[in-house]
């Protein structure tokens, strides 16, 4: 090789491969340190009622500001955190932070937290959730956990047990990215989901013609048959919003209604909105 150039992995012997792969993908090494380094934060995306347009909840979305790379999207670092095991402490931090921030919001809106299959398989997970609720003072019915179909691929019995324990606490469970997984639909008969979230890939395909509309309609039929509510994700246009309302979505989420926002920005949005009509009817005004 040219003098002074890097030796190849083969020349450098065993061990060099690991070092090289870390140099090529610094995220694999750094994701472990991101939590302690204070590089993680949560953004909250509004979810609105299809009927009234009022914000009924927010989804907490993990953000990582890498000191050198800048923002790294969760779709690339969450899988890394899952393989390294870092998802367990990171997931616990997400849960604690989302509950604490949501408890300080005005109103009684929900906060939805994405949970990794790795977290969901741990027998101690429901206790972890109960601790986050207890420490924050957030009412249990204001927390929703979002799981993807892949959660049931390994050890479904353990996962179903955890889901049932969590629902008994009053926490609701949403099935995220519905229709994009590879698992059987038979699990729906277990009746452990309160809601399905229709993946935005179906919404984005709406302009393409009839097939997607048919699939979306069928997903609503399935959800309603099993007593589940529907949230449509990734709504970007008024046309899409109108179609999803027609097809029976209870809630809508997407850039049309708002991007993921920092916690304080979402708090002022909720303050501006004031009490929802149904809340206002129940709560006497403190002044005026
Ligand atoms: P997800 O749970 O399905 O979240 C929705 C994703 O769609 C978010 O991407 C959101 O920013 C994006 N989105 C929302 N509305 C629109 C829209 O109108 N158009 C388009 N093009 N995109 C929209 P994000 O924040 O990059 O998150 C990606 C995925 O990373 C999430 O998908 C979720 O699976 C995972 N994730 C995020 N936060 C966490 C977390 O705290 N824990 C775990 N385990 N996974 C997380
Ligand atoms: Mg989600
Ligand atoms: Mg989703
Ligand atoms: Mg997703």
TrEMBL record:
<dbReference type="InterPro" id="IPR001633">
    <property type="entry name" value="EAL_dom"/>
</dbReference>
<feature type="domain" description="EAL">
    <location>
        <begin position="24"/>
        <end position="274"/>
    </location>
</feature>
<feature type="compositionally biased region" description="Basic and acidic residues">
    <location>
        <begin position="273"/>
        <end position="282"/>
    </location>
</feature>
<protein>
    <submittedName>
        <fullName>EAL domain-containing protein</fullName>
    </submittedName>
</protein>
<dbReference type="InterPro" id="IPR050706">
    <property type="entry name" value="Cyclic-di-GMP_PDE-like"/>
</dbReference>
<dbReference type="InterPro" id="IPR035919">
    <property type="entry name" value="EAL_sf"/>
</dbReference>
<feature type="region of interest" description="Disordered">
    <location>
        <begin position="270"/>
        <end position="288"/>
    </location>
</feature>
<dbReference type="Pfam" id="PF00563">
    <property type="entry name" value="EAL"/>
</dbReference>
